Amino acid sequence: MNGLRLLCISALVWLQACASNDTSLYHWGSYQDKVYEGFQVENGNTSPEKQLQELLQEQQKAVSKGKALPPGFQAHMGYLFFQTGQPDRAVMAFENEKKQFPESSTYMDFAIGKLKKP
Amino acid sequence: MNLHSFTRASKTAVWLGLVFLVGCAAPSKPDQSAFRNSNPKSILVLPPVNQSTDIRGSLSFLSTVTLPLSEAGYYVFPVAMVEATFKENGLPLPDQMHEAPLSKLQSIFGTDAVLYLTLEKYGSTYVVLDSQTVVTAKARLVDARTGTLLWQGRASASDAEGRDNNNGLLGVLLTSVIHQLASNIGNPGYRLSNVTSARLLTPQPGGMLFGPRSPKHGKD
Which of A38, A39, B157, B191 could be bridged to B195 by S-S, CB 3.0 to 4.6 A? Predict the structure, then answer.
């Protein structure tokens, strides 16, 4: 019985360790939730302005925690800047995505090219 | 805790331990040489083809795939912006996007691999006195240059998993895992999509491999 009790406790400790040990590569915060809400825009739920505001806050949190922003985060911000009529800030965000993730270069150049077309 | 329920909890703990060990042992490994040789750095996720009855399912599920793939060590293209790019280029439906030639995808996105998702189930079924929400999806990862299939998998999550085992340790485990992964957004389909995505796309023996941005890359 004691052995079983020990097993129960060690299982719980193991679970606890999984839960508290933050080995994630990136700061996620509410990023995916905002992307989800953004898809609902057509239903009138969340404006790009509000999304942008909340993502700027997540960006601050990432900086203060010393964690990297996830793939696509800065590109998504660029896309929101574009939607809210701020093409210059959009280009800057796309450039930042490229800097952080060179894997995105082809696509970011494609997006910047579209913005710079008269 | 009375003796009876303690014994039951103990049994559950033993069982859980065994499942864990069996999971670690992974007796037969499928051939992953194509995946290893391709060694993709980036993954373009296309909006899922939706076979469920809920038209919101596709984009809801799409919102949840970036986290597990990124944490696995891959670059994942921004899913909402990608979806908009397809629409702007005259391909508004996931079925059409899935038919786009790889050469075209490569020239616009410069991606190493493409992930094709199919949403098989998304939403609630009502049974007597109760309802159950299920999200089931399957995935095919393809090399963007050669079209070679690198990996395929299927996963499911249901909100009945925790409920049915409410008193056991397993129930507590599943419920807490689901709560941990799930956001506080009300839509149960979206919440469960997070769990299905994690189960589908998190690296495991014989399944998804770690990508170059993970410290575990090449060690699995």
Answer: B157
